[in-house]
Design goal:
The protein is an alpha+beta fold. Helix content is 30%, strand content 24%.
C-alpha cells in the first residue's frame, strides 16, 4: 500500500474509497482484535476525534454508535452501528463540503448547509446540498 504523510504529520495510506469504506465497516462491526476498544473510545468521546463543528465529530454526535474520521484532503470515512461503511471525498480537497454532503447522504437533517465566510468572518454565501 503506498504511504504518504497527512496534513497533521501522521502516516496515511493511499486507498480507493471502496477500501476506505470497507475498513470502516469492519471497524464498526468489530472484525479485528482491539476494534471494540477503538469504537468504544471514539463513541464515548467523539469531540476528541476532530472537535466540535468538524464532520467526524458531528456525524458521531448525530448517529449514536457511528465511528468517523476525516482527513486526507477532504476525505471522511464513516462506520455505522449496523456495520455499513461509507467514504466521502471532496474532489477539490477542501473540507467545507464534506459535512453537508455526509449529513445529506446519512439523513442527519442538521448540517446540510454551511456558511461561506470571508477573511473577516462575514457570511458571504451558503453551501448547501441539492438533490438532482
Amino acid at each position: 500500500i503506498p504511504l504518504a504523510v497527512d496534513g497533521c504529520g501522521v502516516v496515511t495510506f493511499a486507498l480507493p474509497l471502496r477500501r476506505m469504506a470497507l475498513a470502516f465497516a469492519r471497524l464498526a462491526r468489530g472484525e479485528r482484535e482491539g476494534s471494540d476498544r477503538i469504537v468504544a473510545a471514539m463513541t464515548a468521546h467523539p469531540e476528541l476525534v476532530e472537535g466540535p463543528g468538524w464532520a467526524a465529530t458531528e456525524v458521531m454526535l448525530a448517529l449514536p454508535g457511528a465511528v468517523a474520521k476525516g482527513g486526507a484532503e477532504g476525505a471522511l470515512c464513516v462506520g455505522l452501528a449496523d456495520g455499513t461503511g461509507i467514504a466521502f471525498k471532496a474532489e477539490d480537497g477542501a473540507t467545507r463540503a464534506v459535512l453537508p454532503a455526509a449529513a445529506h447522504a446519512l439523513r442527519i437533517g442538521a448540517h446540510t448547509e454551511a456558511p461561506i465566510e470571508n477573511s473577516r468572518g462575514d457570511e458571504v454565501g451558503r453551501l448547501r446540498v441539492e438533490d438532482r
